[in-house]
């Protein structure tokens, strides 16, 4: 009954009309039905009525409540109900924890999701494939790709067999990093998934005249790896068996439209189309009776492209590989962690700089922001005429933004003239600091424009 929420509610209405007195089972079914329909307010009303009636709340009750919160994107409410469940002396099960981790993930609460995962194991609940799917997806949303990979590795070591959803999540997480060894790991996992029967999206048309690769509803990482694998196979067929190994037509489906119940990925559609155009590949967009997005190429033209030297270079740009003399993944992972720390420190320095240098976008004024690009062009022209380096011009722009931030009102038409003397002063400062290694340009600027005083900054 819970798999048909509307029918369940209709039955309940009939029972009420006949004078039936609801029990815990009835309330659990109502909570589940309203939850599946996304009506969290009604779910909570039913729960409050259940408490008021003094009816027993079981693990089924709380699991349904937390699941309803998860579907509604209310992770805070889910955590509150979980705490209430524990106060009520009800022991959560794997289903409860899975819903709670998913709810935390939808709220981008990576740390809370990890805490729930750890508590789950401490309480003796064994994580299943749904648990790891929820955890990996949560870490993916939070940009914690290394932790996501660790969780996937732990999952496999515990004997949990990944499904297509897990592979989609972890492969896309690794691919989106842009880190070469992480993308190489993504390809390794993709090949593993293919061997297990996932992501086999190539098919021949009934007539045998057209081979199709369907990228619809795949994540970006899996889609790119599927495309790379397919094109690599096409090249292998051409070089091994000749042009006749390809059918007359080959197509890449980027949007299945009404032919699929799953929603497509618009980013993939645009990315593949743009990439093929940039490469000069023989694929062209065509109108199709079945699909909304199709790129099609003729077999002979595709074979010629696969034999070209440009093809191998283009495949390399799509999926860079680690050279044999490069560091091990462990060392690269350590270097990546160090780089992340350094980036964090750099962003912190930028924030402190912006706070201390009074750069406030809201104070700059609409007129200034609208004409800022033309003002910068004027400063670039003045800098070029004076032979200044780009970093000096950059400092001049920063100074201009600071002026706009702290001035009560900046008249745009009055700025081009100060731009020229700012550039002159910048050049003078550069000359004054010549020979001082590692010292940034120093600007001695008369702030009389705004304060009527002279300051060195």
Word description of this protein:
By secondary structure, this protein is of the alpha+beta class. Helix 4 (59-72) packs antiparallel against helix 5 (75-87). Strand 2, helix 12 and strand 3 form a beta-alpha-beta unit. The protein is 62% helix and 6% strand. The radius of gyration is 31 Å and the shape is globular. The protein has helices spanning 5-17, 24-36, 40-52, 59-72, 75-87, 94-106, 110-122, 129-141, 145-157, 164-176, 180-195, 220-241, 266-279, 299-307, 309-318, 329-356, 366-370, 372-386, 390-406, 416-432, and strands at residues 202-204, 210-214, 249-255, 284-285, 293-298, 444-446, 454-456. The relative contact order is 0.04. A five-stranded mixed β-sheet has the order 1-2-3-5-4. Mean pLDDT is 78; it is low at 423-457.
Give the helix/strand layout.
Blueprint: H1 5-17, H2 24-36, H3 40-52, H4 59-72, H5 75-87, H6 94-106, H7 110-122, H8 129-141, H9 145-157, H10 164-176, H11 180-195, E1 202-204, E2 210-214, H12 220-241, E3 249-255, H13 266-279, E4 284-285, E5 293-298, H14 299-307, H15 309-318, H16 329-356, H17 366-370, H18 372-386, H19 390-406, H20 416-432, E6 444-446, E7 454-456
**Extended strand count:** 7
Note poorly predicted spans: 423-457
In the sheet with the most strands, the strands line up as 1-2-3-5-4
Global outline: globular
* First-residue to last-residue Cα separation: 72 Å
Structural class: alpha+beta
Task: State the order of secondary-structure elements, H for helix, E for strand.
Answer: HHHHHHHHHHHEEHEHEEHHHHHHHEE
């Amino acid at each position: 009954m819970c798999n048909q929420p509307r029918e369940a509610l209709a039955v309940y209405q009939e029972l009420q009309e006949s004078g039936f007195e609801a029990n815990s089972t009835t309330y659990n079914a109502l909570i589940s039905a309203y939850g599946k329909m996304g009506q969290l307010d009604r779910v909570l009303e039913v729960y409050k009525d259940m408490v008021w009636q003094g009816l027993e709340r079981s693990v089924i009750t709380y699991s349904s409540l937390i699941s309803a919160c998860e579907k509604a994107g209310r992770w805070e409410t889910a955590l509150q109900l979980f705490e209430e469940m524990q106060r009520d002396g009800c022991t959560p099960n794997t289903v409860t924890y899975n819903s709670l981790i998913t709810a935390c993930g939808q709220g981008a609460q990576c740390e809370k999701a990890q805490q729930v995962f750890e508590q789950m194991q401490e309480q003796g609940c064994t994580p299943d494939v749904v648990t790891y799917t929820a955890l990996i997806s949560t870490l993916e949303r939070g940009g914690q790709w290394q932790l996501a990979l660790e969780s996937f590795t732990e999952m496999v070591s515990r004997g949990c067999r990944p499904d297509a959803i897990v592979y989609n999540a972890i492969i896309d997480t690794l691919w989106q990093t842009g880190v070469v060894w992480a993308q190489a790991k993504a390809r390794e996992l993709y090949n593993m998934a293919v061997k297990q029967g996932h992501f086999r999206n190539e098919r021949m048309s009934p007539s045998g005249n057209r081979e199709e690769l369907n990228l619809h509803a795949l994540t970006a990482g899996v889609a790119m790896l599927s495309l790379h694998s397919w094109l690599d196979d096409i090249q292998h067929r051409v070089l091994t068996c000749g042009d006749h190994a390809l059918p007359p037509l080959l197509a890449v489906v980027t949007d299945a439209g009404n032919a699929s119940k799953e929603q497509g990925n618009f980013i993939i559609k645009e990315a593949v189309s743009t990439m093929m155009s940039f490469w000069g590949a023989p694929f062209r967009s065509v109108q199709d009776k079945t699909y909304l997005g199709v790129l099609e190429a003729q077999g002979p033209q595709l074979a010629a492209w696969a034999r070209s030297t440009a093809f191998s270079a283009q495949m390399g740009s799509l999926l860079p590989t680690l050279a044999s003399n490069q560091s091990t993944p462990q060392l690269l992972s350590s270097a990546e962690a160090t780089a992340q720390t350094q980036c964090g420190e750099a962003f912190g320095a930028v924030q402190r700089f912006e706070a201390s240098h009074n750069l406030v976008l809201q104070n700059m004024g609409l007129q200034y922001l609208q004409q800022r690009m033309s003002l910068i062009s004027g400063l670039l022209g003045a800098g070029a005429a004076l032979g200044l380096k780009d970093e000096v011009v950059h400092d001049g722009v920063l100074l201009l933004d600071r002026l706009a931030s702290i001035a009560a009102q900046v008249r745009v038409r009055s700025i081009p003239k100060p731009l020229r003397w700012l550039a002159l002063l910048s050049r003078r400062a550069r000359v004054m600091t010549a020979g001082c290694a590692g010292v940034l340009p120093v600007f001695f600027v008369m702030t009389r424009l705004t304060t009527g005083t002279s300051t060195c900054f």
